[in-house]
Design brief:
- The protein has 655 residues and is α+β, with helices and mostly antiparallel strands.
- Helices cover 27% and strands 28% of the residues.
- Strand 2 and strand 3 (21-24) form a beta hairpin.
- The longest helix is centred in the middle third of the chain and has 26 residues, at 296-321.
């Protein structure tokens, strides 16, 4: 049996499509949504869901909430720094700058925490259906990058689920709204969840759901509204009593709960009452409390800038789709914070139309996931989803830059193939870096991993052509394959996910999850770089040495020891190549002078004699223009060179 699961920052929900109907499955307390919380007591079983959230006030340092904001991120990222400032539990650094959570004597990877929540949703469904649940469609924010998607898929596997597909949350909402209704509309899905914001613009026609554009902010949501209310209460208390409640973990959790409840109350009432009779003691031991009314206008002043941030993202989505708000036929609201009148009114003003009012913003995503799960297993209507990749895929090149391989908002699945040649004689491998993001500077994008290609034919420089294919599948996950063009031999491809889990780690966590008790959770040892082989038949993780402690250059070249970089000018030959003079590298002979091909899609990889330059900033490599590509084609047509015209620009797309 396949279900749809909305794995949210604050709450999660599970649904099933059966007999032409979509049912949101209530938990053991009869509630349609469950808290995305995990609590590890000193003794006894692990608590998950609403039972865990109830422990947050009494045991804040051992209760984990909002873990979705951490999944697939680097420890040094700004988002993790923000989370550390507001979370009561301990966030620590794991291997390769990954994020871990320390609870008591255990250090847990974020996918394991998400897996506990997914397993809870799985058990809720099994209790309702009376049969095992083994398959699921899990939703993710549309703006999740590859690392975050991979980590979510790993969490599903750890929970004992075959993840049929990772479905973007706005797409799931649109599917719930329009599937089987014969609609022909352009709609906007405004998805303001607990921790993330997405906007997707879709065109619906004859049960074909085509995403025209998607944009988002993966650290903007209802919990930021709560934090603004928390700051208001804490600051007023400090001004009155000179006591900072943020320094007391229990008091901080009490404030969080009060702020969240006040926000919920303001979705139905004009004024919310905050009453906390005992939250601290003064110097004389007297109990101090908080009594305050919070109005809708108070909240509006606190969060006005946050709402405006969402509209800046909406502006970007309209620009990407080449549309305006006048082109939209309707607006779907998703996420609990959209219940607030101040959000609904602001959305209506921005889009110049009232949003649909007959959709439950807390359940619509899970319902859409259930519809798609039924379609994938042949148990429901087959709607066609045409989604897009939210972020550009890039390759790191010389000078600390990143060149685009696949543009954002490109329909998926998509393939782009680029052809490369070896640079050094008898070169055995090539190492590059892959990024996602929109910045020209590599450092300002999200690094997905280091890709190492090996196993191709050993020959002199320029004699071996390697076709490297970059693919983004329907889940939005990036895959890379390599092939020796002459022999058709598939090259070994290795992805080192900087914050991911190795296959061995995942299997160990699967066993722990199957055990299903607190004793199965053990401290995570310090692990080396997590590596996943794309072609398991050809690659074992032991085939490669551990990465060097030194930073790797963002340039296309084989991994090798670094020679000293001599001083000297860089000359440009004027023929599409840039050349270093022999004086720059005295040990290099004239026949081995280093060059980098700058024309077309054919690029030379590597450095002279397996060397790696300390710095290539002076090369000032820029993408070739159309005229340069045309000139290169003419050159190869007339010069009798090794490349055919089709080799110069091998970029292709399909999907």
């Amino acid at each position: 049996m396949a279900v749809g699961i909305d794995l949210g920052t604050s709450n999660s929900c599970v649904a099933i499509a059966k007999g032409g109907k979509v049912i949101v499955i209530p938990n053991r307390y009869g509630e349609p949504i469950s808290a995305s919380a995990v609590s590890l007591p000193a003794d006894g079983p692990v608590a998950v869901g609403n039972a865990a959230k109830a422990q947050a006030v009494n045991d804040p340092t051992n209760t984990i909430t909002s873990s979705k904001r951490l999944i697939g991120r680097y420890y040094f990222s700004e988002e993790v720094k923000k989370a550390k400032a507001v979370c009561s539990y301990s966030i620590v650094e794991g291997p390769n700058h990954s994020v871990r959570v320390k609870v008591r004597d255990q250090i847990l990877p974020i996918p394991e925490i998400s897996a506990l929540i997914l397993r809870e949703m799985k058990e809720v469904a099994e209790a309702h259906l009376g049969e095992p649940v083994t398959e699921a469609v899990i939703t993710v924010p549309a703006y999740f990058n590859d690392n975050q998607r991979q980590a979510t898929r790993d969490a599903g596997r750890i929970a004992g689920l075959e993840v049929l597909r990772l479905l973007n949350e706005p797409t799931a909402a649109a599917l719930s709204y329009g599937c089987g209704k014969g609609l022909t509309q352009k709609i906007a899905v405004y998805d303001l969840g607990g921790g993330t914001f997405d906007i997707s613009i879709l065109e619906i026609g004859d049960d074909v759901f085509e995403v025209l554009s998607t944009c988002g902010d993966t650290f903007l949501g209802g919990e930021d509204f709560d934090d603004r209310l928390l700051d208001l209460l804490a600051d007023e208390f400090h001004n009155q009593y000179q006591i900072n409640l943020r320094n007391d973990m229990r008091a901080l959790e009490v404030l969080k709960a009060a702020a969240e409840q006040a926000k919920k109350d303001l979705s139905v009432e004009d004024v919310a009452q905050v009453r906390i009779p005992e939250i601290a003691k003064d110097g004389n031991g007297n109990l101090l409390g908080i009594e305050r009314d919070v109005s809708r206008s108070d909240l509006a002043k606190l969060v006005e800038d946050l709402i405006q941030r969402t509209f800046k993202v909406c502006d970007e989505a309209f620009q990407q789709a080449s549309l305006t708000n006048r082109d939209i036929d309707g607006v779907i609201l998703v996420g609990g914070p959209t219940r607030l009148p101040l959000v609904r009114d602001a959305v209506a003003e921005y889009f110049q139309k009232e949003p649909f009012g007959n959709i439950d913003p807390d359940q619509v995503v899970a319902m859409g996931a259930a519809i798609h799960a039924a379609a994938l297993t042949g148990q429901g209507d087959d709607a066609h989803l045409l989604d897009v990749t939210p972020l550009s895929l890039r390759i790191g090149v010389a000078g600390g830059l990143a060149e685009t391989v696949i543009e954002r908002n490109t329909p998926v699945p998509i393939e782009q193939t680029r052809s490369f040649t070896t640079f050094s004689d008898f070169q055995e491998s090539v190492s590059i870096r892959i990024y996602q993001g929109e910045a020209r500077a590599a450092a300002n994008n999200e690094m997905l991993g280091e890709f190492e290609f090996a196993g191709f034919r050993s020959a002199r420089r320029g004699e071996v052509k390697i076709n490297v294919t970059f693919e983004i599948d329907t889940d939005g996950i990036v895959n890379v394959t390599a092939e020796d063009e002459e022999t058709g031999q598939g090259a070994s491809t290795e992805i080192r996910l900087s914050s991911g889990l190795s296959e061995e780690e995942i299997q160990d966590l699967v066993v722990k999850q199957q055990a299903g008790d607190a004793e199965a959770l053990q401290p995570v040892p310090e692990l080396g770089t997590a590596m996943v082989a794309l072609e398991e038949d050809e690659l074992e993780t032991d085939d490669f040495d551990a990465p060097s402690e030194e930073p790797m250059l963002d340039t296309l070249e084989p991994p090798a020891p670094k020679p000293a970089l001599a001083e000297g000018p860089v000359t440009n030959t004027g023929t599409g190549e840039q050349e270093l003079s022999e004086d720059d590298f005295p040990e290099v002979s004239g026949s081995e002078t280093a060059t980098m091909q700058a024309a077309g899609g054919e690029e030379e990889l590597g450095a002279v004699d397996d060397g790696v330059f300390d710095s290539l900033d002076e090369l000032d490599v820029v993408p070739p223009s159309v005229d340069e590509k045309r000139a290169a084609r003419e050159h190869f047509d007339t010069s009798g060179g090794d490349l055919s015209p089709s080799d110069v620009d091998e970029d292709e797309s399909a999907g």
